[in-house]
Amino acid sequence: MGVFKQLVPSSNPALAEELLSLLSESLSQEGMANYFTRRNEQAAARLWQELLQLLLSAAAAAASPQLYHLADGSAAALVQQYPQDRAGWHRGSSLLHLAKLVPWGKWRALREALVALDKQKAAFRSSHGPFLHLAAVAVAPSLRSAGLGSVLLDHICRTADQQRQPIYAEVTSDRVRGWLKRHGFAESMRHIVRPHAPPVYVLVRWPVAAAAAGSGNGVSSAGGSSNGVHAAQHAVKQHAPRLRPSGSVRSR
Predict the structure, then answer these.
(1) How many Cβ atoms from other residues are within 10 Å of residue 127's Cβ?
(2) 199, 191 in Cβ contact below 8 A?
(3) What is the pLDDT of residue 252?
(4) Is 69 exposed, middle or buried (0-12, 13-18, 19+ CB in 10 A)?
């Protein structure tokens, strides 16, 4: 399955580009990207590529490892420290060049959504302190359903437990939402960007004690060690109030 690696993007731009391509191509069928590009899969992949590159290039702590991956390149994730890596790329004119990838009305909706979701992350940080933002995770298409994504996510969860930080994720796919829940994430909110847009789900996984997180080294078929998942779910009940939606995004 490969060895876990963490990459500072600037240290190996070629590998970083390869991992971003894996992420963007895998996410091209994701609901929100399809909504913004009117179901144009190629445009959706380009949109994700641009968004992920903007996240990396605008991060305040450019020297921090933000790409997690298996050594063979079969699975990758973009994980940022919040607020250290917080990027203000969606403010001002940073997103204007994305207008060529999405229709004008959709671009406005995209910017509104990004700003609102960033406000929500800022509110979460204000209430609960620093956290890891799981911005994207993907597996090579030919190797899906082999458990590689769960192996990588399990490693990220252990890293978060060691740092005693929650993991914060935003997803639109019911399949990915269920997968994250099997790793101990709990749904905190559902955003509605526009009436016909797919909802954006905010999920949080709270850190568990080192003993509980490390007691099951194997990964279950559902994804994640069962002891660690149960401990994370217990931590959710103890720590996680429902998040309050940002005023600029509809929620229900």
Answers:
(1) 10
(2) yes
(3) 36
(4) buried
